[in-house]
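agent> fetching stored inputs for the magnesium ion docking request
agent> found them:
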Amino acid sequence: MTLFSPRIVDTEFQIVDAANPEPEIMAHAGEIIRQGGLVAFPTETVYGLGANALDPEAVQQIFLAKGRPLDNPLIVHIADWSSLDQLVVAVSEPARLLGERFWPGPLTLVLPRHPQVPAEVTSGLDTVAIRWPDHRVAEDLIRAAGVPIAAPSANRSGKPSPTDAGHVMEDLGGRVELILVAGETGVGVESTVLDLTGPVPTVLRPGGVTLEKLRAVIPNVVVKEDLQKSDVGLGTPTGRANEGVPPSPGMRYTHYAPEKPLLLIEGEDGSQPSVEKILQAVDQLRAQGHTVGVLTSSENAALYYAAANPPEYVRVIGSRENMADVALYLFKILRECDLAEVDLILVESFPEEGLGLAIMDRLRRACGGQVMRI
Ligand code: AMP
Ligand code: MG
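agent> prediction call returned; pasting tokens
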């Protein structure tokens, strides 16, 4: 059966103890998954929208509920090592080492797909992405369901990922049978996606496990070049380009994007421009008739407030000294951008080391690849 529109359902909510999930609620959630339904649940990264990974029709509902392009494959979530046998044909030595070091945790491994995994999950690829999430609710759900759970982030396709259950309701209310509510997630950016099926282990999406940590286990890990970057001049701040070769299936789509136009600010040489220079850019944009906001760090915020003509909206993402906090609040703040009463928002860049690599990847995508070099 081919379906073209999402199933409309009464969405049920259950508040769950994140540290010690109530067994009867988890049994109920597991039953919904086994029956082919959708359950939104917290993980340590963001909230996921889960279905039985071995049930093609249930998996199809994920794509319909999110409005997700069918060629963007899903991550399959497990909560024990033995589940791997039904999902992949071989677990290589690097896969075993990385799994032992980082699972449960925010690392997704792309491995050779077992024929039993429906093509709907992998968008027809002969590889499959697997992760063991580090959250009691996610683990208990997988165990209660008794099947691996395919789950992308629980947002409408293209929107910032949900870091609390309210975001899930905003995007997917009426399209998901059950939302497990268990507070805010702890990491804030999604898992690192690492492809182990090629000659060299390659990061397809930077995320919660940093490149530095991966290299401590597998020294030859490389990062797939992000070719999505495109520049705009000051004259066209609201245009959205989305060109380039996708580094991973699904990565060519605009992601994490508020409705509000965002512009990433970088120096000519890739450095981070001073607040003084950014204020000059704000003035120039104002002269062109725009009202302008800025997303900044706590270190710089006071400099904007003290400016002769401060931007109309200044929002702190977090401290440059604490990138884990920046990651944690990033998506929530991107959602808030739509409420800011300005025409466009300039986004400061962060150093691309540690979690900064994932943060900058998400910011670039939130900006639809729009970069202003000053
Ligand atoms: P999300 O939408 O947050 O669940 O993202 C899942 C990510 O994993 C997307 O970037 C997918 O392109 C990527 N992914 C899933 N399966 C595969 C696969 N078999 N090969 C490469 N990337 C994958
Ligand atoms: Mg997503």
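agent> quick read of the result: Confidence is low (pLDDT under 50) at residues 227-247.
agent> awaiting further instructions
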